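Quick one, probably user error.
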């Protein structure tokens, strides 16, 4: 299981435990609370309560029976807890979660699963979490005004709520492309199969884009044919995740890598992993900086830079000289740098020409 799958499983287990515990507690809740209410009011056995006392006791009893989430929704938490715990702290945790997986996810996680998890949390945030936070906090502010007969802090909190709602709407507008990308990765990424993977003798031939699922197809061929010893990579690139997965397969199975037409962008991650590396005359290796096909956020830029550093380390471990590594990401994302054959041999990327 990947780190994200483990995280989601743990969250689901905690939620399941919480829900079941609440159900069992509601069914088996003792009547000691009622006795506490009577004691606190100074009730004696045989004493008859007035109607007002009975209604007051009933309200106290109902308030104690409320769950944490219901209590916040109805504004029965203190204003400080509603603001600092249920809003500020929870939003910080959600922001850390999204930032971490935006940073670490593109390389380590299945892009479809990752997109679905982040999209689910985003939808839950706007549909469930944010309304629960804002409504409960607003009601808590009203309650504070009534009980404390003070209006300054409740007004400040309500102003912050209004600004928060407006900020959320602005964020939805500014991050529209990001959410469209998440939707695309969640439901449409699996439909693209612009590649062919075939087996001839002991050699796998990969031709086309590194679309979602290509590494699984290669892995199936390797499992069914343990004598496979080489792979031909002819690709203009594609998903970094797939390039990394192919790299792992090539490294763990000690495959030799070839390119007859050319290997560019994410494809080079797989090519450099070959035990022996061959290139046909006329084929080229292409390199450029990593990027998304849209404007990147700061965290995404950091993630792209981190991925580049990881791959630079891979090239270094595969015997490529530091002089080349310092140049390999010089081309911007919308351009491509093609080293000469002399440079490819000189800096250790290629061992021989293919026959």
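Nope, works fine. Designed sequence:
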């Amino acid at each position: 299981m990947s780190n994200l799958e483990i995280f989601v499983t743990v969250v689901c287990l905690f939620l399941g435990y919480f829900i079941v515990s609440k159900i069992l507690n509601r069914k088996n809740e003792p009547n000691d609370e009622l006795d506490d209410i009577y004691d606190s009011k100074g009730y004696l056995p045989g004493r008859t309560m007035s109607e007002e006392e009975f209604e007051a006791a009933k309200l106290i009893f109902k308030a104690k029976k409320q769950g944490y989430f219901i209590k916040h929704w109805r504004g029965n938490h203190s204003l400080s807890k509603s603001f600092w715990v249920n809003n500020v702290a929870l939003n910080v945790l959600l922001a850390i979660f999204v930032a971490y997986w935006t940073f670490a996810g593109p390389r380590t996680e299945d892009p479809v699963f990752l997109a679905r998890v982040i999209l689910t949390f985003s939808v839950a945030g706007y549909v469930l979490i944010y309304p629960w936070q804002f409504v409960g906090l607003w009601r808590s502010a009203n309650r504070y005004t009534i009980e404390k007969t003070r209006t300054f802090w409740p007004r400040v909190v309500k102003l912050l709520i209004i600004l928060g709602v407006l900020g959320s709407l602005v964020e939805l507008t500014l991050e529209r492309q990001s959410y469209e990308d998440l939707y695309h990765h969640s439901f449409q990424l699996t439909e693209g199969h612009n590649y062919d993977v075939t087996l001839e003798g002991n050699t796998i031939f990969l031709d086309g884009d590194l679309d979602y699922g290509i590494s699984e197809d290669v892995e199936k061929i390797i499992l069914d044919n343990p004598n496979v010893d080489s792979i031909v990579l002819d690709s203009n690139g594609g998903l970094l995740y797939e390039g990394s997965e192919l790299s792992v397969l090539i490294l763990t199975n000690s495959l030799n890598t070839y390119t007859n037409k050319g290997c560019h962008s994410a494809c080079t991650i797989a090519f450099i992993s070959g035990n022996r590396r061959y290139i046909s005359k006329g084929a080229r290796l292409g390199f450029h900086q990593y990027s998304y096909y849209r404007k990147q956020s700061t965290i995404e830029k950091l993630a792209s830079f981190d991925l580049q550093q990881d791959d630079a380390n891979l090239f270094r471990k595969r015997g490529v000289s530091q002089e080349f590594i310092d140049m390999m990401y010089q081309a911007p994302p919308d351009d491509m740098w093609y080293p000469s054959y002399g440079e490819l041999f000189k800096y250790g990327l290629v061992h021989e020409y293919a026959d």
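Residues 24-39 have pLDDT under 50 and may be disordered.
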